[in-house]
Amino acid sequence: MKGLRIISTGRALPSKCMTNDDMSRLVDTSDEWISTRTGIRQRYFCEAEGNADLAAAAAGLALKRSGIAPGQLCACIVATVTPDYATPSMGCMVQRRLGLPEDLPCFDISVGCTGFVYGLQIARGLLLQDRRPYALVVGSEALSHVLDFADRSTCVLFGDGAGAAVVTLDETPYACVLGSRGDPAALSVAGPGLPRAIHMDGPAVFRFAVEALPRCARTLLDQAGLTLEDIRWFVPHQANARIISSAARRLGVPPERFYQNMERYGNTSAASIPIALDEMSQQGLLQRGDRILCIGFGAGLTWGGALLEW
User: Fold this and answer.
1) Residues 261-289: pLDDT tens digits?
2) 289-294 contacts: CB < 8 A, separation 24 or more?
3) Which of 6, 114, 143, 232 could link 296 by a cystine bridge, Cβ 3.0 to 4.6 Å?
4) What is the structure's pLDDT at 195?
């Protein structure tokens, strides 16, 4: 089976950094309350920027680092639940800003925090059917636009940002699993006509995540015929440090093999995994041949994972 390889990555963040102390001036909370429960110490909020600004910046950086011509792309897929417009799509906005070819399918997917993983599998399907050898997958969110700053249980968790990857087919190990279970009571953002605030049943989401993450990991390993020891890095959605620690314990994997950066960015939904991959790449943590397991979980409820070789 043809695998999928990440050629290059990029990330973009708004200029406004909000520490936990900054948040305590907006809502009844504290650095101690937030950090001990979530592992988050700061996040970034859009002020002058829009979501399309972040998406285009991250995608442009990934494309520049790839060294490929835009005409070699077969698709531009943007995962987001906070687009600047209902239409045109964020994909189309990225196409316009980067001057990508017009014969390029550009579209959005709304899969919450699992969006980037869904995007990888969609890109693989399109690559299998197209003569052009590369695809651009972006996760980008402006979650500060949908936060209720009177609700300290949610507003302290989320941040804005974008991550992107250029991918291509390759003869490397690959496995993917995707899933969904409609449950708006657990985590949702209201649609037109209602206040667009994030609503979340924290305990329900926590229970779902700590079960879904290790189950997804085991399913991927079974598909690929690999073991936990074959994986160099686990790159989960960056929602909560306690979720990741619990998943590591359930799998029996040392926590240091689970990459975490939510202390710097908060929960950036669809952007969290590609932001993490770009950060790891730029820090030299990812070496050619490393097997990595990316797992997303969140609103929908959705979950999904992709096993890749770097």
Assistant:
1) 999 999 999 999 999 999 999 999 999 99
2) 290/232, 290/233, 291/173, 291/226, 291/230, 291/231, 291/232, 292/231, 292/232, 292/233, 292/234, 292/235, 293/217, 293/220, 293/221, 293/231, 293/233, 293/234, 293/235, 294/116, 294/117, 294/120, 294/235, 294/236
3) 114
4) 66
pLDDT classification of 185: cutoffs 50, 70, 90: low
CATH number corresponding to 3-170: 3.40.47.10
CATH number for the domain formed by residue range(s) 175-256+288-309? 3.40.47.10
Catalytic site positions = 113, 237, 267
Q: pLDDT band for position 193 (50/70/90)?
A: low
- CA dihedral sign, ordered 81, 82, 88, 92: negative
The answer to whether 127 touches 65, Cβ cutoff 8 Å, is no
Residue 284, phi-psi category: left (phi > 0), alpha (psi -120 to 50), beta (remainder): left
Cα–Cα separations (whole angstroms), residue 250 to 32, 68, 257, 287, 297: 27, 41, 14, 27, 16
* pTM over 0.85, yes/no: yes
Judge if 3-170 and 175-256+288-309 fold alike in CATH terms.
yes
Q: Residues with Cβ < 8 Å from 73, sequence gap 6 or more?
A: 100, 101, 104, 132, 134, 135, 136, 166
pLDDT exceeding 90 applies to what percent of the chain? 84
